[in-house]
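Changelog-adjacent note: as of this version, every example in the card shows the full chain rather than a window. The one below runs 223 residues end to end.
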Amino acid sequence: MQEPQFVPHSQYCEYALEEMKKRAADFYADIKRRRSVRQFSDRPVPKEIIENCLKAAGTAPNGANHQPWHFVVVSNLEAKKKIREAAEREEQEFYGGKAPQDWLDALAHLGTDEHKPYLETAPYLIVVFAQNYEIKPDGKQIKNYYVTESVGIALGFLIAALHHAGLACLTHTPSPMGFLRELLNRPTSERPYLILVVGYPAKDCKVPDIRKKPLDEIATFID
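Full-length structure tokens:
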């Protein structure tokens, strides 16, 4: 068993109390502007922006530091078209009878349906894969831990980073998603987790009129 190695936490930066309060308030004021959009512009986005947002996602905490995620960034027009066609086939079955009525009722206020043109319009699709295990160069199989939780945290980092950079995104989860592994030639050790649609919102973009729960409904303080 490998002995743990430790180094000084020299990157930590402590702020004065008033600065901490301001930074927390400023971050909330910025992040609450974030909205999921379904109308994207086809304006190009520099690859460097996506790369830095992905590097930010890669800093997320995760089980045993195995970092059980892989991000496939799709900008190729033909590849995006194939993903859209496959996703819409699944969505047609979902909206056409596979989904229970209570789930359809829950989605109704969002105005979603089986048509997903944004999968082709947006400049980037970031397909997130969760790695259940890792295959080392010598062929040894290493199990990953807390995979779903770890990938979810990394995805949250990624969404926040994209918003911070000035981009919009949408989480899309066609069900089932197995076609993504085949289309993108990913190994069987990985399972599709989510498609993140990324780009600028269209000029005429509209979003559902929804509200977020207030603090007293999402948090309990035990002093």
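Structural remarks: The beta strands are 69-74, 124-131, 133-135, 141-143, 168-172, 190-199.
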